[in-house]
Design goal:
The chain is α/β, with parallel strands linked by helices. It contains 14 helices and twelve strands.
């Protein structure tokens, strides 16, 4: 077996299951899970209908590169969403459909990293654990960039030494962030692109939460948008990852895309051809329908705003947090150790939250997730309200 498999840490939900083991929550309280970021809003009916209409296409092998119409639809969406000029994204060379961002984020490191050059892969801390696993199995060493409240929950790239940048081959960023919802501003993205040019590394921007934001007038900027604005019109060293899971409440569709630097994507396509990860044709047709429609996305954002407002009203004054600019997570500080808090909350209320220390690693003497919990406001409004009321009563008791 590959010895690098032994470097992988247990997934956060494995740790959570162990934390809850042997605890019998109150039987008169229905379970409410705020621990997993799995959207629970209904998938728009037209997505399922389109999927059904094209089931006959299951008789055909799909191409790894995807249907031309899907790539064209994605390119058009990128140009609309991120204010790029028409024709600035080449659907034939700068777009690749993928089976959701998780699969692509992992595979990307396998294609990009040269393990023979003592590589580092940089990533935010806390982080989506796929980044770490991808780096380790590519033969690289993860290097964690703490994201603390003092830094606005953004990676502190100013503190990275020159020798670290010289060894960096790939950096993962996540904006809006998981778990904080922090949005990386364009000037910080611009700084990162300049560093990539200077030190010859690739930026993988995980933007799967980009369509869940509070202010309709201020959508989060994307890395390609920033690259274009600074004159990098070929998106050199920049690759973005988007998904329909959060945007369109379709996590089971397993559909997203990768876009950006054409030279990098050409090599990534070669890797993916061997990897065997093409989307089925019915899924591609349903995905095209989803990327062409914005009305359901606007309605989706409104549902999350309603839940954030309701939960904020209930928990204000008893739990320290701010409503994030984007995403669907709350990232509150806990009045006690985060594992103790999560365990006792579950034991007394049957509400499950995820300890923040399970999402991060010790770096520079701290674990930046410790003393926080992640709460995913993905359940229906009444369940989120019920959970918030139980948390309030738990804290007040």
């Amino acid at each position: 077996m590959n010895p690098l498999l032994d470097t992988l840490q247990p997934y956060p939900f494995e740790k959570l299951a162990r934390l809850k083991q042997g605890i019998a929550p109150p039987p008169d309280r229905s379970p409410i899970a705020l621990s997993i970021g799995e959207p629970q809003h209904p998938t728009p009916a037209f997505i399922g209908a389109t999927l059904s209409e094209h089931l006959a296409e299951l008789t055909r092998y799909p191409a790894t590169q995807g249907l031309p119409a899907l790539r064209e639809g994605i390119a058009a969406w990128l140009e609309r969403r991120f204010h790029l000029p028409a024709g600035s994204v080449d659907p034939g060379r700068q777009v690749l459909p993928c089976n959701g961002t998780r699969e692509a984020l992992f595979a990307f490191a396998q294609a990009v990293v040269d393990p023979g050059r003592n590589p580092l892969v940089l990533m935010p801390n806390p982080f989506y654990q796929i980044y770490e696993g991808a780096a380790l199995l590519a033969g690289a060493q993860p290097y964690f960039l703490n994201t603390t409240a003092e830094a606005g929950y953004l990676p502190d790239i100013d503190s990275v030494p020159e020798d670290i940048w010289r060894r960096c081959q790939l950096i993962y960023i996540c904006s809006p962030g998981n778990p904080s919802g922090a949005v990386m501003p364009a000037d910080r993205q611009r700084q990162l692109i300049e560093l990539a040019e200077r030190h010859d590394f690739v930026i993988a921007s995980d933007e799967c939460y980009s369509e869940l934001y509070n202010d309709e007038a201020q959508p989060p900027p994307g890395l390609l948008q920033t690259a274009w604005a600074m004159g990098n019109t070929t998106f050199r060293r920049c690759v973005v990852f988007h998904s329909l899971s959060k945007r369109s409440n379709a996590p089971g569709l397993r559909s997203g895309f990768v876009a950006g630097d054409a030279d990098i994507l050409a090599r990534f396509l070669r890797y993916r051809t061997y990897h065997g990860c093409a989307l089925s044709l019915p899924v591609q047709q349903a995905s095209l329908a989803a990327w062409r429609d914005e009305a359901h996305v606007v309605a989706n954002r409104a549902l999350y705003r309603e839940k954030f407002a309701a939960v904020q009203t209930i928990l204000a004054g008893v739990l320290a947090f701010t409503v994030p600019a984007a995403g669907f997570y709350l990232w509150p500080r806990t009045p006690a150790d985060d594992q103790d808090f999560a365990r006792e909350l579950y034991a007394q209320t049957n509400v499950t939250v995820l300890p923040g220390s399970y999402l991060s690693r010790d770096q520079f003497g701290i674990n930046p997730g410790r003393g926080h919990v992640r709460m995913a406001l993905v359940a229906p409004l009444d369940a989120c309200v019920d959970a918030a009321e139980r948390i309030r009563d738990f804290l007040q008791s």
